[in-house]
What does this fold into?
Amino acid sequence: MTLIQRIILATLFIIPIFAIGFFLMQGDEEPFIVEQTAGQTNLPAVSNTDTLPPNHPDPQAQVHAMIAEMEQKIAQNQHEFKDILLLARSYMMTKDYPKAAATYEKALVIEPDSIDVLLPLADVLAVIDQGKLTGRSFDLLEKVLAIDPNVPMALWLMGNAEIQLERPEKAAEYWTTLYHIFPEGSENQMKVGQQLEEIGKAPAPSSASAQSSTPKSASAQASDQAIHITLDIAPEAQEKLKGTTVFIYAKSQTGMPMPIAAKKFPGEQLTSSITITEADELMPNRKLKDIAQINVGIKISKQSDVDNKAELFRAEQALPDSRKVNLVVQF
It folds into this structure.
């Protein structure tokens, strides 16, 4: 496994990619987060070694070792742009916010219009500024929304920034837009609705035409992009699934190795039919609908272990036009 792959494995399924720090500053134990969250992973926190078995490698020490290796690679100018992003995200995971900010600043020089840089940089600067989103973070978030006015996390954070500036009317504009982006009745929509109610700007009920047309359009789009996966699990493999962690993922055949969308299951809960949709996308500006060539894969590992030696089985297959894939699981 390459250095980049190890860092992706150590970070991707342990922490949310964006808006980690801001919510830690606010003390919100169940924050609104569009990306996949630590609570959804069932993996232990990186800093928690109390429950590790004897002689088990310390995950935190592993991550710090990977960070040191990546720092050396970048210092020797033997890196690509995605390496800088991975290093910045690793700093966020270890709560080294000044280094995360400095690394995102380097990335911003290279890609000044990248949402993958602008959004987390706004987040980490807010952490360093004691949770304030009204300084440079505000300008960065404005730029994100100028590039794409429908980035959920940017809309959420801008609403918080406007509340800090005592401009509830402006906050309501951002949050109302966000409210209507989410599926009708979804948990995220309800949480945004609650925030709007708290500032006296409860969203108006959708009209009958909106209820009949908008959700249908969104549903049709999600259906078009859905990836349907069937698993042929050999009997001997079925017996070995207990105590494992299974990732089902879709990734681009070219470009960044990070999955575009993924689902995670305890091995004993793995079923023979799985669907990946836009709801499983991991980053706000990497969409299944934008990727022409996709590989679909399954990875089975020893539970709660991020080391390469934990991998028990992996298989990938190119996604055909039918968007239906059959994977054989045998190990």
About this structure: The chain has two domains: 3-209, 223-329. Residues 208-225 form the longest helix (18 residues).
